[in-house]
Amino acid sequence: MSNYDVIITGSGPNGIAAAIQLQQKGLKTLIIEQANEPGGAVKTEELTLPGFQHDVGAAIMPMGIASPFFRNLPLEQFGLEWVFPEIPYAHPFPDGSAIACYKDIHKTAGQLEADKDSYLRLFKPIIQNWKKIENNILGPLSWPDSTVNLLKFGVKALPPARNLVNRYFKEEKTKSFFYGAAAHSSLPLTNLASASFGLVLASLAHQYNWPFPKGGAENFIKALLKYYQSIGGVLELNKKVSNLNTLPTAKAYLFDLTPRQLLKIEGTDFSAKYRKQLSNYNYGAGVFKIDWALSGAIPFINDKCRKAGTVHLGFSPEELEISEAKIHKGKLSDKPYVLLAQHSNFDNSRAPKDKYTAWAYCHVPHGSTADCTAIIENQIERVAPGFKDIVLKRSTLNTRKLESFNPNLVGGDINGGKPDITQLFTRPIISFSPYATSNKQIYICSSSTPPGGGVHGMCGFHAAQKVLKDHFQDLTE
Ligand SMILES: Cc1cc2nc3c(=O)[nH]c(=O)nc-3n(C[C@H](O)[C@H](O)[C@H](O)COP(=O)(O)OP(=O)(O)OC[C@H]3O[C@@H](n4cnc5c(N)ncnc54)[C@H](O)[C@@H]3O)c2cc1C
Predict the structure, then answer these.
(1) Which residue, 164, 296, 299, 319, shows the most beta carbons closer than 10 Å to its own?
(2) Domain 6-34+239-281+415-475 belongs to what architecture?
(3) Residue 2, pLDDT above cutoff 70
């Protein structure tokens, strides 16, 4: 076994980002992955029928294209091709109407009747100042680059989504439209910080669209790894790390794992205090995931939805509030919030000729094994009657199956831990340096560190920065 400067366990987007950042600095790095394919929760498989390419986990990547780390990598040269849907996302209603989030903020606001000016007042300052605040939003707690702008963002982002919509909007449909993006948090919409997801995700749509990789989400990972290997990085598959002492010698070890798994690794010599802190980490709601092979495009009543890559379902503010609140009381709503993506409307490499795919999930209680197929399909039928008739085959994953697909998805939690106010910027423990552990050689770089879930690689980037600072000071800029 050769020696490395740094060894990274786990080849999710954060593990790969950390490895690239360190390898780019001239270090010798190795990624070890337990699965037979790299990518963590970013994988593409023929889950239903031959020729139908389904994204098992992440599907839509606004944070991938916007990530200050990923956007500076030459991924297009290594095979990545972004697909930009005509409309980033849309929110339909059973009366046949829909609100589209266009990249053009004025076109979006133009649909909002009485809420037009409020929408612009809410989002324009965030978009105009995005470059000044993105490093603070996409990183650990730190001294802001632009205090005034960050404070202005925080005043809007930290309250519950319900307070924000009631303060800014008059129309029920505008409130539902905002909730569609805010509910990505998996938090009750009455919880502090739930507004932040809506603000960040909608702002990204207005700046970057909500694109996805042509051919499948795995093509994003393939491009990252081709680049990593082109600069000398090494990837080893099919090797589960369970004991630090069995790894080759290195100055630092990064773990793209969540706290529960890290605690199971032997030989870490963590202090009793740190072990206790990690064991107090909170995991969030799970998801029930479904993929369909379809004989046609989803027959949405409203044309805007056919042109949108992502569609949010949940029709009144009350319906959305109730469905998201119930999850955290261990219950399911029969009218759940559903997040749906339809890649093949824009990418014909995803399905055989004249056939289509669709991808969706709803939130469920942590660890739930409930089958949500019927409630998800019923929600779609309310705005796309005839949907069930075009289903050729479906594949479902409950929280247990998700966790066996990738052990980081604890209880079906896709964010690596609850992103509530206590764990948004201070995960997995309260610290200005949450990537470091009590063992000076061990670091955590998964989505259980700031800025949390999503394909942005910023957890890995910040963890790598900390490793450089602690062990390779001469390589820091
Ligand atoms: C159903 C679903 C839908 C999602 N949708 C989106 C979306 O549309 N857009 C978006 O941006 N994000 C989405 N996400 C979230 C996103 O995929 C995750 O936040 C992201 O993958 C986290 O990256 P990571 O590197 O922290 O961890 P992961 O991607 O979970 O990778 C961790 C890796 O570590 C490996 N590993 C674990 N234990 C060991 C061990 N002991 N030894 C060796 N290897 C080990 C695992 O096999 C895995 O490959 C979704 C996730 C899921 C599951």
Answers:
(1) 164
(2) 3-Layer(bba) Sandwich (3.50)
(3) no
